[in-house]
Amino acid sequence: MEDILHKIKALLYDNPLTEDPNDFTARVNSERSLTVSEICQSAARRGGADIAAASMQHGVELFLKEMAYQLCDGFSVNTGYFTATPLIKGVFNSPNETFDPKKHNLLFQFNQGETLRKALANIEVQITGVAESGLMITQVTDMKTGSVNHLLTVNRNLKINGYKLKIVGDNAANGVYFVSQANGKRTRVEDSDVVTNNPSELMIVIPKLPAGQYLLEVTTQFTNSSLLKEPRTTQFEKILTIQ
Fold first, then answer.
1. What average pLDDT does the structure give for the chain?
2. Residue-wise burial string across 135-150, b where 16 or more C-beta atoms lie within 10 A, e elsewhere
3. Are strands 123-130 and 6-14 parallel, antiparallel or unpaired?
4. What is the dihedral of CA 42, 183, 28, 17, to 10 degrees?
5. Looking at residue 81, what is its pLDDT?
């Protein structure tokens, strides 16, 4: 057995996808997402890089830029750490049908590579307890493309899973919001575009937003018993992209 080099801490959450009141799902207790710059600085500090952090970052960004260019030309990429490939989704109803952006979707799919797969043997998972079941978004799924926690399709449905998400209460702040990472503008989903409104699942119609990156927020006064006097807000930890 290989030596344990890393530790990942996780909390247990009630499983909203089953009726069993005694089963849980585990979620990694991640502090935050690291940028390319932060990873390069860490490599320089630890001695894992024999060049300066700034030089390493420049090289990584050049690599990523060229990788994106080659992916756009239809090549697949295998770095050992992850694989990436262009993917077309949607049904073609005849041999002569051409690609239609209104019906078909082009995206990039990333998967774990062999090097990362082998590294799993060096990780110890520590379950630190059961999390307080507060308001939380755990996963979002674009219903047109099937993209999970990544790409969004405007004017199509988005499924939002989590805990205590039901939007109730008379406070004007209650609702689902998309927050632009470019300018901080918050766009509220119209009440009529909230198709499903349950504690563990919301289904909404994604507003017609400009291409870019967004954070998703849910604000509500819902609890399992009486309504909260003031609304509370949860923000999904992953950045979502509208192409």
1. 91
2. bbbbebbbebbebebb
3. parallel
4. -160
5. 96
